[in-house]
Amino acid sequence: MPLIHSLSGVVIRCFKKVESAADWMTGAAGPVFVFMCWSLILSGGFIYFDVVVRSLSLLSLFLLSPLLILVPLNLYGQYYLVTHVPPGYPAPKPSGEEKKAAAWLIPNPKSIWAGERWGFVRQGRALTGASGMSGVWEGASRRVRRCRKCDGPKPERTHHCSVCKRCVLQMDHHCPWINACVGLHNQRHFVLFMAWLSTGCATVSITGYHAFLATFDYHAEWPSWTPKIGFTLIYVLCLAIGFAVSVLMFWHLYMVSYGETSIESHDNAYLAGKAKKEGLIYLNPYDLGRRRNLQLFFNIGPNGYSKMSLLFPLVLPPASNGWSFPRRPIPSHPPAKSTNLHAPELADGLIARANGLGLGLGLEGEVPNAEGELRSPIGGHAEDGMGGYVMGDEEGLTDDEEGGGGWMDLGDPQYRFGNDDR
Ligand SMILES: [Zn+2]
Ligand SMILES: [Zn+2]
């Protein structure tokens, strides 16, 4: 028996070594991936204009002009932003690099990327007083999970990235194509980049079809600088990448519309299965209805920005500060057979409460329960399952294999590393 025990120890250590080697490789290969991505989208754009746009008639040019302007603007703009805007972290590292990154999280209104500069202002009052890394816990004594790996605070929906070696607010996944984590502050750029890339690939596929056929015709006129083989290659790549990215984009939009990140999608599927075995219906606490989930993700609609902001590569603050999120109520009625768990009317109720009572995204809405733990009055707890519902909570959702770091008190001065030093 001791032999098996020590052998399994060796195997686990080996797995950990392989895992951290893979993480290191993902991090080291990141800049190569970003270089490849820039090369592809820049050469794709150039070749398309050189081969297809130059042979378009004046009428087609006029009809296609919105796409010919908006696609390159957003494709390059959103990719620049998704690789520069950090995902947002619960605890900053005090270094020069960190200050540069922080400037993206609280954008200068005079910056060329700032929505304010181009007339995009938030409608209504902001749901949270603070954004980014500072001012979140001013004067507040709040218990928050501690990350076992980096020893820093780990608010709800935060996960530790083993490639970035730090905690990331509302982490979705680590993406080698942008050499960064996708999280609270850059996921909007991530999804919009995929959307504009899909649109661009579709435009090339449709309007470049004749030119693609001409590359196989030896007698066809070819006035472009780009050799025929170059266009054939770009066209085929466009079809393949366009298809793959569209699928990925719709999958992300699907998850967003259900109020979950990629990580939470796994957690929720697991928790839903577990609840079903016990005859209960699992509710995702962050699911406020399809429409409201999408509005909060893109920060448009009530309390957000204009829908037009989706058409430009602009930095807008996220709807949440990343430390607390609005939660759905547990329905007071028992579940019917065909209960719509994504009822949009829930969202309206939450907005009304957020405006009227200061609940919703703000920390001020949370009240301590009998054990002194902070609970949102509109949120739920697994133990509070009423009428056959069960709702995941802060502990359930972040208490994965990265958990187990216990709790920390943010009122303690030694944890005030997020102070405003701008
Ligand atoms: Zn961590
Ligand atoms: Zn990462």
From TrEMBL:
Record flagged with keyword Chloroplast? no
List membrane-spanning regions: 21-49, 55-76, 190-212, 232-254
**Matches recorded under PROSITE patterns:** DHHC (PS50216)
Biased amino acid composition, Acidic residues: 393-403
Is Transmembrane helix set as a keyword in this record?
yes
A molecular function annotated in GO for this UniProt entry is: protein-cysteine S-palmitoyltransferase activity
Q: What is its main location?
A: membrane
A Pfam family per the record: DHHC
Entry EC number(s): 2.3.1.225
**In which compartments does the protein localize?**
Membrane
| Residue ranges, annotated region (Disordered) | 393-422
Membrane topology is: Multi-pass membrane protein
Q: Which reaction does it catalyse?
A: L-cysteinyl-[protein] + hexadecanoyl-CoA = S-hexadecanoyl-L-cysteinyl-[protein] + CoA
Residue intervals of the Palmitoyltransferase DHHC domain:
146-266
Report keywords, A-Z.
Acyltransferase, Lipoprotein, Membrane, Palmitate, Transferase, Transmembrane, Transmembrane helix
GO CC, sorted alphabetically, is: membrane
Give the domain note: The DHHC domain is required for palmitoyltransferase activity.
Which protein family is named in the record?
Belongs to the DHHC palmitoyltransferase family.
**What's the protein called, per UniProt?**
Palmitoyltransferase
* Species per Swiss-Prot/TrEMBL record: Kwoniella dejecticola CBS 10117
